[in-house]
Amino acid sequence: MRYSDYPSLRLLIPFIGGILAYNTIGDTPVSLQQLFLLLALLCIATMLFLFWGKRCANFYGLLLSVTLFVSAYTLSQYQSEKVRVEWHADRRIYSGMLKDYPIEKAKSYRLDLELIDTLYGGIDIILYVPKDSISENLTPGSIISFNGQIKPPSNESIDGDFDYATYLYRNGVSGTLWVNKAHWRLLPDSCALAPLSVLSVKCRKMLLDKYREWGLQEDVYAVVAAVTVGYKDELTDELRSIYSTSGASHVLAVSGLHVGILFAILSFFFPLFMNRMCLRWIKEIIVIAVLWCYAFMIGLPYSITRSLIMFTTIAVCRSIGRENSSLNALAFAALVILVTNTNALFDIGFQLSFLAVLAILLWEPQIRKIYTPTNRVVEYLWGITTVSLSAQLGTAPLVMLNFANYSTYFLLTNFIVIPLMFVIVFVAVLMLIFSFVPIIRTLFVWVLTELVTITNRALSLIVDLPYSS
Fold first, then answer.
1. How far apart are CA 138 and CA 147, in angstroms?
2. What is the pTM of this model?
3. Which distant-in-sequence residues (6+ apart) come within 8 Å of 450 by Cβ?
4. How does pLDDT run across 165-208, given as a tens digit for each residue?
5. What span, in angstroms and rounded, lies between the C-alpha atoms of 46 and 38?
């Protein structure tokens, strides 16, 4: 493997270096104006070296890396300064739009708001309000007026070493506030101007309500909600522990498995004449558009965003007759996500998703060469083994560092859970497609209930084995 064969990887590495540099020495007093000026000069010099020809090829590569490094540093500082707001020292009246449904806490509801004031428009905060019938029934898009003193995130009330303030900043939250019942109110007719992101949250909630209506209950409902729309709030602590200890947490994330299944189903419903060269473009565009709409509806988690960027990149290259490797597509996906949000680099979901795929791409072909099965069943099991080993080896240091445990029987878990989860996702998609036919829908609900129950019981048995974690 030659480093020069992967242009996206060559762009990604210095870009990551710039993000890490800012988060290491970010307190160094360099103004954004100075950084933008330096970046402009580097861009001009890079273009000059590019047009100069082969004589300056080495200088061009070096200068391009420096330009990307400075770009990432500048972008990180810009995004950080945008989030770290200096709030007024006294009480003020603010207005904000609710971005998601209220999250119930012990004595209050947490409201994720985007401020719509002239001065702080677009800034995200967390507002805590007392429990009552009004706060309980709030919906995304509602406009709330409140009075108080917003404070920047802090670690004052946090026990342990967890840096809660940095966590909130990296998730785009600029402040927090608790108000009593007298200091907030819901403005009337406030849902008319809801953005698309709010509409996607409502669509997901509508689908989850349908799951309940169709008969999915308790743990079955929680697992199906997680693997189809990425909604994990219904997972109980016991269920989370079972999936984590057994090494099956990865199947609860909406990722490439879902993209593959949806792509297969969508392709099946297209008539055969759409496979002709002149019409393949139309088919590719429609399928990709549907997949991106699905990803947007479930909130664009990093795992499926990574899968869809890779899938889209490879599909486009295939359609125009250009070669493209999976490793190059993976690096390009990481670069796109980091350009939109440099703090994604520090998200554990982002790290696990990309490290797992990177390990599979690099190590799985080498491990597969160790043994060549002649039986199809053995070949299938050997394929699961090689992929599982690669992914576990790639993510093991990160898992042990962040979660302080390691799943001993991960191979046994994957032998059981991967085939079952493939069928579960496939049946769930078919249930949605044929939901307008009550008899067929009821049949799929029963099948889903049985499959998820079998999966949960199997994982529980693995957890009960000696030294399972």
1. 18
2. 0.83
3. none
4. 888 888 888 888 998 888 888 887 655 556 777 888 888 888 88
5. 12
